[in-house]
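agent> fetching stored inputs for the adenosine-5'-triphosphate docking request
agent> found them:
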Amino acid sequence: MTLNVTDLRKTYESGDEALKGVDLSVGGSETTAMIGPSGAGKSTFIRCVNRLTEPTSGTVELDGTDLTALDDDGLRAARRDIGMIFQEYNLVERLTVMENVLTGRLGYVSAWRAFRRNFPPEDVERAYEILERVGLGDMENKRVDELSGGQRQRVGIARAVVQQPKILLVDEPTSSLDPETSNTVMRLLTEIAAEREVPVLINIHEVDLAVEHADRIVGLHDGEVVFEGSASELDEGALDRVYRGGDPPASRGSDASGEDAPVGDGSDGGPLVGDGVVSTDGHAPERPTSGGS
Ligand SMILES: Nc1ncnc2c1ncn2[C@@H]1O[C@H](COP(=O)(O)OP(=O)(O)OP(=O)(O)O)[C@@H](O)[C@H]1O
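agent> prediction call returned; pasting tokens
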């Protein structure tokens, strides 16, 4: 499975240019982390990939099919192949863990079966297996509103995986989790990518988590990719470009080691890392006054 994004642009109705021509390929069972300061365009990018937000121009090819050219039916079918672990695709609070996971199969069963909650036995079996895999083996009957943040995120992962997607898109999976749980969730995502041989694209604030878990890091600044490489290549210069829009280096050199993780205490305006909470460029992105699209 390969996702090929070419020259993706998004200008909101407000005139805000959130993406200014982004190219990105993701494939194999690779975990790609997208980092960048608040307002860089990370969420816009991931939402444009599955067209929750309509891109202004550019192409998004999933195994050769351009998603931007699909009509509603085509898009609905294509979205079966995209597992989404998104904040706003949140869980249904009053339903059980199992019921939430099975909603991942909704794209495959008829509306009537879904309404009756009458899922095929193989779907139920698959849901049990996945719950076991994410460490919620005995929790299928718990209501989601009784779970911890980490457990909820695991339900979200199980729900995306039960769909048997060809790619996983993940938006800020750890933003409300403590550091230890964040690590566990990131590890789970990368392991599942390897086991199921699907690529994972993760938007993540915390640079240290990206460095530790991702195979590849993509840095966005102001709607443009300003870094792409391995964790060890993410040196001070690269971080400066990502978080402060510094100039690209004349010649590309890398002397950063993996253990010398490029993290800071935020005092220099750079990424603040260490307690699971990151302040990026020190100020929130300006919201357009018109409300936008
Ligand atoms: N619905 C919208 N309407 C208008 N402008 C928007 C909308 N959503 C985002 N923007 C603008 O687009 C730019 C990119 O925002 P986006 O949310 O994609 O960034 P981000 O990197 O995900 O930031 P964060 O890490 O804070 O979530 C920002 O300038 C933002 O104000």
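agent> quick read of the result: Strands lie at 2-11, 17-27, 31-35, 57-62, 65-66, 82-85, 167-171, 200-203, 216-221, 224-229.
agent> awaiting further instructions
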